[in-house]
Design goal:
Length: about 150
C-alpha cells in the first residue's frame, strides 16, 4: 500500500500543479474578457462565428460543449447587445444560423488581437519547443482520459 501511495504522489502533485496553473490562466482570460463587457460564453460564441463564419445553434452547442438551451440563452443576450443575429437557413427553414452583426464584427476586430496578446503574455515563460511538448502531452492525457469516461 505504501508503494502505491509513493507512486501516486507524483500524479497528485502533477494534478494539483496543473489545476493551479489552469485556474490562474482561466482567471486571467476571464478578467480580460469581462473587461470588454462579455461573459465567457458570449466570447466563446463570438469567437467561433468570428473565426469559422455563421454557425447553426446545434453546431455551436456541440463545438463549445454547452447545452443547446444555454446556447439559445447566450445568443439571445448577444442579439440584445446587437453583436449577433439569427438568420433562417435557406436550405431548411427549421434551422437558423448565428452570425456576427457589423457591431459584433467591429467589437471583435478590436478586442480579439488584445485577447491573443494576453494569452501570448501568459505563455511567454515557455519557449516554442516547450509549447509544442506541452501541447502534445496535454493531447495524450486528454485522449487517454476521454477513453476512461
Amino acid at each position: 500500500m505504501e508503494q502505491k501511495l509513493q507512486y501516486a504522489e507524483k500524479e497528485l502533485k502533477l494534478f494539483r500543479t496543473w489545476l493551479k496553473a489552469t485556474k490562474t490562466l482561466y482567471d486571467n482570460v476571464t478578467k480580460d474578457i469581462t473587461s470588454h463587457g462579455l461573459t465567457i460564453e458570449n466570447f466563446m460564441v463570438l469567437e467561433l462565428i468570428y473565426n469559422k463564419g455563421p454557425q447553426h445553434i446545434q453546431t455551436i452547442s456541440e463545438k463549445l460543449m454547452i447545452p443547446s438551451g444555454s446556447i439559445t440563452y447566450v445568443v439571445n443576450k448577444l442579439e440584445k447587445k446587437e453583436l449577433a443575429k439569427r438568420e433562417l437557413d435557406e436550405n431548411n427553414k427549421r434551422y437558423c444560423k448565428v452570425l456576427l452583426t457589423k457591431k459584433g464584427e467591429a467589437l471583435f476586430n478590436e478586442i480579439f488581437p488584445k485577447h491573443v496578446d494576453m494569452i501570448v503574455k501568459n505563455l511567454e515563460s515557455l519557449d516554442d519547443s516547450q509549447k509544442d511538448q506541452l501541447t502534445e502531452l496535454l493531447k495524450i492525457v486528454g485522449l487517454a482520459a476521454k477513453e476512461l469516461s
